[in-house]
Amino acid sequence: MKIELELVKNMHFVGISPDEHKTHFDALPESGGENIAPRPMEIMLQALAACTSMDVVAIVRKKRKTVEAFKAIIDGERRDNHPKVFTKVHIKYILKSPDAELKDLERAVELSQTTYCPAIAMFKAAGCEVSSEFELIR
């Protein structure tokens, strides 16, 4: 996989994927940015959320359960000193389904976190603690 990253202005960068999808990055004003886009570490958490969420939704659907809505809320803690890597990440998975059981959600998360999600695997390999909680809404 190859991507490009281009400077737009000040600290505003745009990443371009092989399919030409764009992701914008920026810094806070005190770091020379304009705060018009997320910081790279924020996007890392968004990517982690997207990776595991896609797994979980696909697995729940494969169990022939209805997914009316889904949300992942991620809280990440970083080291105080440089490099300020993530040390802890907590993911709250919220599934709205009329027919899924909590065990369906829990099993889908387990499979995502132990087998399928490369983003979680990378965070764990870097020494980051990953925890989770679950909510099922009818």
Total helices: the number is: 3
Could you tell me the radius of gyration in angstroms? 17 Å
What is the name of the CATH class of the largest domain?
A: Alpha Beta
In quaternary terms, these chains amount to single chain
Question: If you had to describe this structure to a student in words, what would you say it looks like?
Answer:
The chain has 138 residues and is α+β, with helices and mostly antiparallel strands. The chain has helices at 40-62, 102-116, 118-125, and strands spanning 4-9, 12-16, 22-25, 69-78, 86-96, 129-137. The protein has two domains: 1-37; 40-137, 2-Layer Sandwich (GMP Synthetase, Chain A, domain 3). The protein contains three helices and six strands, in the order βββαββααβ. Strands 1-2-3 form a three-stranded antiparallel sheet, with no helix packed on it. A three-stranded mixed sheet has the order 4-5-6, with helices on one face. Strand 1 and strand 2 form a beta hairpin. The longest helix has 23 residues, at 40-62. The chain is globular.
